[in-house]
Model the fold of this input.
Amino acid sequence: MADYLLSMMTFFPLLGILILLFLPRDNGGLLKGFTLAVSLITFAISLPLAFDNVFTTSGGMHYREFYQWINIGDFFQMNYNIGIDGISLWLVMLTTFITPITILSTWNAVEKNIKGFMVMLLLLETGMLGAFISLDLFLFYVFWELMLIPMYFLIGIWGGKNRIYAAVKFFIYTAVGSLLMLVAIIFVYYYAQQSGTITNGFGIQELYKLDLPYNAQFWLFLAFGFSFAIKVPMFPLHTWLPDAHTEAPTAGSVILAAVLLKMGTYGYVRFAMPLFPDALPTFIPFLAFLSVVGIIYGSLVAMMQEDIKKLVAYSSVAHLGFVMLGVFALNLQGLAGGMIQMVNHGISTGALFLIVGFLYERRHTRLITEFGGIATKMPIFATIFMIILFSSIGLPGTNGFVGEFLALMGAFQGGLRWYAVFATTGVILAAIYMLWVYQRVMFGKVTNPKNENLEDLSVREIIIMLPLLLFVFWIGIYPNTFFSKMNPAMEQMLIQMGANPVAVVEMHQPAAVEHAVDHAETQTEHK
Amino acid sequence: MENLVQEAIQNVNFQAIMPSLVLCVFGMVILMVSVFSKRGSTTHVAWLSIVALVVTGFVALTGWNNPQAGFAGSVLFDNFATFFSMICIIAAALTILMSDDYLKREGYPVSEYYPLILFTTAGAMWMASGTDLMTIFLGLEVLSVSLYVLAGFFRNQVRSNEAGLKYFFLGAFSTGFLLYGVALLYGVTGTTKLEGIAAYVRANPESAMNTMFIAGGALLLIGFLFKVAAAPFHMWTPDVYQGAPTPITAFMSAGPKAAAFAALMRVSIVGLDGLQSELTSMFWILAVLTMTVGNFIALSQKDLKRMLAYSSISHAGYAMVGLVAWNEIGHSAILFYMLVYTFMNMGAFAVLVLIGKKGENNLTLEGIAGLGYKKPVLGIVLTIFLFSLMGLPPTAGFTAKFYIFAGAIEAGYIWLAVLGVLNSAVSLYYYLRVMVQMYFKDPEEDFAWVSINTPVAISIVISVVGVLYLGIFPNSLMNLAKLAGF
Done:
């Protein structure tokens, strides 16, 4: 059973789709209930991963599955090569965790073509999980592209007024990047084949050992990095994101923010940076600069938005800037901050989109000026909104603080000092735009008569938010649950990126650090 | 004299042309059957033609790993020919399956239609197996003449007439070029056999730079490039594809195109081997030109058949990338690509056949608004075909494009691959527009006239299965393509 856990988890939603197709089209309750059950079972399948202590001791790949998939002799060979380590662990968990929540959140929001909607959500889940666990570049590419299709339809069919524009823009932006990555993937393969030392030119673990000349690494990093930068999205490639977020239905926005954007950051950590470490010093100043610009620009633009959803979308650009900055710091704090911030962003921005969705379902508008004084009418909503807001700003005690603090500290220590200084203004700006929007929406007197009779959150809506709140505090107060499983993998990854994980002095796991130091030394000797 | 006859008889090996022979005999029998059939009843003729194709398919498969040379070395039915023959047979069978109801709807239930398709296929098989320029020419003519008739088959429709006439005139020109090329090559080398031409050039390397030789090779290739619909010889394609009966359009874009590619490949790789560096640079330019022209003009098309015509031009460009690569991977990739293209493109056309009204004036972008809601199954399958045409996983279009670009990159043509994928990115837009209409727009019509009949359903199912199977488990057929390539 454990041998096939990852496959079962990844393809269970696909199995669900097959059954879903044969369920009656007009029985909405059944369709929703069934899909929810499928996603919950998927979550249950993935749950043992979170409790497996193997991740705390070893940073390698676990739950490996390896089968030959395509074998055309000396032409090319692809494998079904999957596995999970501390870096992908929490992203996988985030995916299986957030999917049932989004399904629950669509309970009343989606009316037309429920079946299609549910099929798309499940297909998306398979695509996302597959991309996180692929250890074969070709397989990764297949899953990576597979995610495009359901998201395109989610935005295009169930989206807002301007949905067609947003859907096509989303699709073309992301596809252009990934097509260039495809060329790079094939190039790496043939380079590895011709070097003669590597037998499996698509397997990333073998490719980590490949010694590419700087010139090739430069171009390959550019191709991979471009593709991932679109997905993150990094300034100035972010323009598809506000459109996609604004037009997508709530469920689409939540998944887009919570998981899909992580594909880009994950891609940097797993593929672009460790595969082409020699090119990193060339690109990091540039990428870090773009991250900081993204943070400040995203915050400033968010401040001026009149549409709450657009505001959250631009705040995403800023938050992911923190993630990228932490990752580019190339030390354990930075990477840990970046990684945990990926999860945080999934939780808090996902929750923010849900909150916007609650308001929208009640009032069918998202304009800030339409609201005011809601707090008196919806006290539970106000409380939850407040907590999530603090988490998004990064108040100590919430998850956002841990991530942003570590990412900034990592950047500060890791040679990106001035970048970190400027990025910190983003924290202040976040407080400004978040608190300001909260003030305008929630406080004051009810000026708009339409807001007089707003109902507070229903039980279902509270159930949706509770697990998210749990993790807001869990990660905020005791992040070590998560770090302890990430650290060994992150240390290995940093060594692979050519960075020195020793820079981490006061991290939580001295034993693991020692181990990593030994490992690093043997690696240098080896070279 | 007697010796000569004896030798000639010994050299004849009917096994080498057995598949096309079988098909031609069937074609003639079916012609006779249709003469004695009641006017307007064509269904049994259609099914008889399917039987003919299935039998031919089995006969053709005997050529696998069992190369048969015949007619003093002017025919070689090898793996390569088998693979391409199978593509043409599949294309013909899918065409016939989607034709019967269509012909009745459009008011031309004429049974000669089916034997003509069979003869086209026979011609295509000669093209794929010819190793002598004359045999290839013979195949090309058999194929073309039947296609001219089929393109103009709706004799009272102006558009169909235009298609037939245009195809005929331009086709005749291109055949002229081709023959001129053959004559010049013969003048230089004294033979029309591909091997002989190559041997002559090997023995006299300076002759490869002979103006007459280069001019001959160029003229010859123009003939094939015309059939492939490569830019700048593509001008006929949109009008002919739009005007011809839809199943014939589908057929032309798959079967005859594959045959033309087969001939182009064999002539370039076997016969004009001496011109490799010149040919690859020429194909480089043509490939980029063809995909770019096809994709960019397709962007502005509103008529679906016309859009797919331009898309078919661009796909010829992608396939040609395999010729630029000029390595084993690239050559095998073309075979795989043509097979995949047959499934995805003919599948898309089969859906168009179903949703067209009489006269097919509704086959425009606006005409299919909301199709995905009114006819969900058709919507889903058309979506799958479009994703495959875009080259997105997990469809066969992706694995085929991967194969092609892998060949190019292995041979070091990175920029060509980059231009290729950027072209794919452009193509996303017009394929997406179809989906936008199908799913993102509200239906304006109820599509009540769409009735799904069994034969078309079979052809669609075969295409969908082909597209998905070759997309997810391409292993076996990629390996076959490898064995069939040069």
